[in-house]
Write a structure and sequence with these properties.
651 residues; Jelly Rolls; 3 domains
């Protein structure tokens, strides 16, 4: 282990040297961190490749077991000289107990939070043992459900426990992917040493005055900073885009922040509307003439507002960037893997590359997955892709105090991690929960009546309310909307106000021509399925199963609608009935391309009444049929080229 002079904050990575075992067994294996149990078991040949054939069914037992990870930390005397030593886990999936030298450091219960504990008193010079025990998410979720006393809707999850767990919902199975409920240290680990003071975060806020922008930078610090007798102070430097000389402003420990007056600001615009200049901000914390902590970030100068003007057709739903309404051309995305730690940064950044090539300027991050890594938002900043960021709620939440407090901490951490990014345009409370509760028959299906019904409705209001919910107080900037869509696709209101998820095509068995008659003010979901190419299917499935109607082909299709909408559309739109798998795949992709082309042309043709089109979905997390236009290995389907032509043409 290496560290530098103890006077300055140091970060010691702890990703290497881990081992793991199933609790109750006596065999240890090398582990990879970041990673999860399933990938560690696969690497050692203890389970089959769950992406291939029907192997996904044979690994479901893993979610019901407990697992332990451990490693040794060698601590030098120089590290112990720091006044504070913090153990930092950037992601624990999900129910974990952390021990250092047999002392319980803390417990985790949220996949989406960073967990930090002060451990200086527990560390000793030389070897130290760090252990993490992961409890079965299914058993822990069942305990939470039983304690809450109400069975919440769980259409995608036979175990019924996922609504009570702060964990990626798609892992419990969805209509585009199978079930794979992971456990593990899914993000990085580090030991942080610091003395006297350190920068926890830097919060930039912009005040736009036309030709001048006031940039206020508030430095949030730990330690003695800000106390009357403190000898600590902060220095904030700002570099204009393409400038090598910063402006310098000294703050001497003030907690109310420092303000830069930027004349003739270089504004950040979405892709296709202008350039994406980025300002560089460096903050240093100095105590007793010694630099203790340094923080750097890049920001963009821009404003994003909602245009909700009432008009003859109802009420607008448009994004106004730098004072101008911009038509949003984009997509929805899901996590690029069933295992979120696999190739995380690279896969997320590749999605941004695809968006740029297709002429997009917005992406919606769907609520059933995970919050993307910093690298994704950095790429969107550079590329000019605005981000509609859902909170990770694709199921109704329980209303317990512990759940709400957990949700509040998650919101606080994610907001402050991402608020600097000019690409972040809007936060959304959840995906489809309001329309689902009102229109999908959950009250009858799950016997939620009387007091139970009131309790479920109140929990959602308490969490997502736009003015005083647990999530909304943190969202000073950017925008916030409590749910998407604001009304169901089956009623007229959805066409006149708010954003619309139009699923008459596919879920409603409507013909493609219905896209033209169902154009909302902003269409944030719509789509049609196709199969990936036969070459990809052959890499993940037995050759003997590659024929129409085989058990494997039926297993790959996760939608309750089966292949019937595809078959009907091929007959209706192409006038053919494929007899071979290859012909069926090509025809499915052809009708999918036609569906997206017709929908986007209808949305573009309805401007300015309609001011956005975000198709479902850009990518896949496993090699099967879905609404995606890019398959699991990153290859474009014909529909992606149709979208590219529609988005890039001038209207």
């Amino acid at each position: 282990m290496a560290c530098v002079l103890h006077a300055q904050e140091v970060l010691v990575p702890l990703n290497n040297g881990w081992r793991f075992q199933q609790v109750g067994k006596d065999r240890w294996y090398d582990a990879e961190v970041p990673g999860v149990v399933q990938t560690d078991l696969l690497r050692h040949g203890l389970i089959p490749d769950f992406y291939r054939g029907s192997n996904i069914d044979s690994v479901q037992w893993i979610e019901n077991e407990d697992w332990e990870y451990r490693r040794t930390i060698l601590v030098a005397d120089t590290l112990l000289r720091h006044g504070h030593l913090d153990l930092v886990f950037k992601g624990l999936d999900t129910f974990a107990e952390v021990y250092l030298n047999d002392s319980l450091v803390g417990r985790a219960n949220n996949m989406f939070r960073t967990w930090e504990w002060e451990v200086k008193d527990l560390l000793r010079e030389g070897p130290n043992e760090l252990r993490v025990i992961f409890r079965s998410p299914i058993r822990e979720g069942a305990k939470l459900r039983d304690a809450y006393g109400i069975q919440l809707p769980h259409d995608n999850d036979p175990s019924g426990v996922s609504p009570y767990i702060r964990k990626a919902a798609y892992q419990f199975g969805w209509d585009f992917c199978p079930r794979l409920v992971t456990s593990g240290i899914w993000q990085g680990v580090e030991l942080r040493g610091w003395s006297v003071g350190r920068i926890r975060q830097v919060v930039p806020t912009q005040f736009d005055h036309g030709n001048t922008v006031h940039l206020k930078v508030v430095v949030d610090s730990d330690g003695a900073v800000g106390e009357l007798d403190s000898k600590c102070g902060t220095t904030v430097q700002l570099w204009e885009p393409d400038s090598e000389r910063p402006a310098v402003l000294n703050c001497s420990g003030h907690l109310d922040g420092v303000t830069f007056r930027i004349k003739r600001p270089k504004r950040w615009d979405p892709r296709g509307s202008g350039e994406q200049p980025l300002y560089r901000v460096r903050t240093r914390l100095t105590c007793d003439d010694t630099v203790r902590s340094v923080h750097e970030m890049r920001i963009g100068i821009r404003t994003v507002e909602f245009d909700t003007t009432r008009d003859a057709d109802g009420q607008a739903f448009a994004f106004k960037v730098n004072g101008k309404n911009v038509f949003m051309k984009g997509c929805n995305i899901v996590p690029p893997h069933m295992v979120p730690s696999l190739d995380a940064d690279r896969k997320w950044v590749e999605l941004v590359k695809h968006m740029c090539e297709a002429g997009m300027n917005m992406v919606r991050v769907w609520a059933g997955g995970i919050y993307p890594p910093d690298a994704f938002f950095d790429a969107c900043d550079t590329a000019g892709i605005l981000v509609w960021q859902d909170h990770m709620y694709a199921q109704l939440p329980p209303g317990s105090k512990s759940f709400m407090e957990n949700a509040e901490q998650e919101a606080f951490q994610q907001q402050h991690r991402l608020l600097r990014h000019p690409s972040l345009a809007i936060w959304c409370g959840n995906n489809e929960l309001d329309v689902a509760w009102k229109n999908w028959g959950w009250q009858e299906r799950y016997h939620l009546h009387g007091a139970d019904s009131i309790s479920v409705a109140n929990a959602s209001t308490e969490l997502f309310n736009a003015r005083n919910g647990y999530l909304s107080p943190f969202f000073r900037s950017p925008l916030y909307t409590p749910t998407s869509p604001l009304s169901n696709w089956g009623n007229a209101e959805g066409l006149t106000r708010g954003d619309l998820h139009y699923w008459g095509v596919w879920h409603g068995d409507s013909a493609f021509s219905s896209f033209a008659n169902n154009v909302g003010r902003f269409v944030s979901e719509y789509g049609f399925q196709s199969y990936p190419d036969s070459a990809l299917l052959a890499r993940y499935n037995p050759p003997s199963e590659l024929y129409l109607g085989s058990p494997t082909m039926k297993r790959l299709q996760r939608s309750y609608k089966t292949d019937k909408p595809i078959i009907d559309a091929i007959k209706r739109e192409l006038g053919v009935e494929p007899r071979t798998l290859g012909a069926f795949i090509r025809a499915s992709q052809e009708v999918q391309a036609r569906a997206y082309r017709m929908a986007i042309e209808a949305h573009l043709g309805a401007r300015p009444r309609c001011m956005g089109t975000l198709f479902w979905q850009l990518n896949d997390c496993w090699p099967g049929p879905s609404w995606s236009l890019i398959d699991y290995e990153g290859h474009w389907k014909p529909g992606m080229y149709a979208v590219q032509r529609a988005y890039q043409q001038e209207h």
